[in-house]
Amino acid sequence: MDSVLALGLGYLLGSIPFGLILTSLTGAGDLRSIGSGNIGATNVLRTGRKGIAAATLLLDLAKALAAVLIAREVWSGAEPFAALGAILGHCFPVWLKFKGGKGVASMMGAALGLAWPIGLAYAVTWLGMLAVTRISSLAGLTAALAAPLAAWWLGYMSYVPVLGAIAVLVFVLHRANIGRLLAGTEPKVGSKG
Fold first, then answer.
1. d(Cα 74, Cα 18) in Å, to the nearest integer?
2. Which of 49, 52, 54, 138 is the most exposed place for a label (fewest CB within 10 A)?
3. How many angstroms separate the Cα of 33 from the Cα of each of 10, 37, 48, 52, 102?
4. In Å, what is the CA distance from 98 to each residue of 14, 94, 125, 132?
5. Residue 163 to residue 155: CA distance in whole angstroms
6. From the centroid of its chain, how far is CA 93?
7. How far apart (Å, rounded) are the C-alpha atoms in residues 183 and 186?
8. pLDDT for 96-118, tens place per residue?
9. d(CA 81, CA 24)
């Protein structure tokens, strides 16, 4: 029952669409009709509002982090379920007909909550790849892959399955991006294309 409750809490927190809320409140329009239509920080950046994009990234991270930390306090041992729930809520929010984000920022929050060294490995991989390539999707995919590998390498074996499952979901949700990466047509952050 603790696992189910933690999953539910994670889903509810994860399903808060901060990107959509912030762009609506600041008059940037309906985020779902801009760029890719995604509710995550990368698409918020396409509105030209860097501050709102940064806030979206931090809030999407924070909601998954909060879910894991609350679960640890209330249902100790059920943190992986809260992490999974937060990602599922972010990617498939019931309030938006199950059309949400792709889970990159929220996965970082979940990783940080599970064990800060895993979160640190995720962040360094994400930011490093973004700095080198300036391709948001490639940075996110690399970081998603790094999280379960870091958990395994650092000895957090109980977190490997959930981080592996989340990484698979992130890859599935980025399948169009992967196609563009393979074709060499994936746009870089700040590009007009």
1. 25
2. 54
3. 27, 5, 14, 17, 16
4. 12, 5, 29, 33
5. 13
6. 13
7. 8
8. 899 999 999 999 999 999 999 99
9. 31
